Amino acid sequence: MQPRVTPLSMMPTGSTGRVIAFRGGYGSMRRMMEMGITPGTIIRVINNSVGPILIEVRGAVYALGRGMASKVLVELL
Description:
By secondary structure, the chain is of the alpha+beta class. It has helices at about 25-35, 65-70; strands at about 5, 15-20, 40-45, 55, 60-65, 70-75. The radius of gyration is 11 Å and the shape is globular.
């Protein structure tokens, strides 16, 4: 069975996933790494309704804009 890979921006509220890869340039990748979001990191979506997406990463909560979240590819767990 193939893993279900989706952009972080498409993950439903309450779901959990593992970061697989980033799309985009060095700047967006650096920003993700500054937040501790690297390939293999587990992310939980706290809220994905209107506005920025709230995620939990390694015990910290971050708000990500939809453009940035669409560049993070995640395997749903």
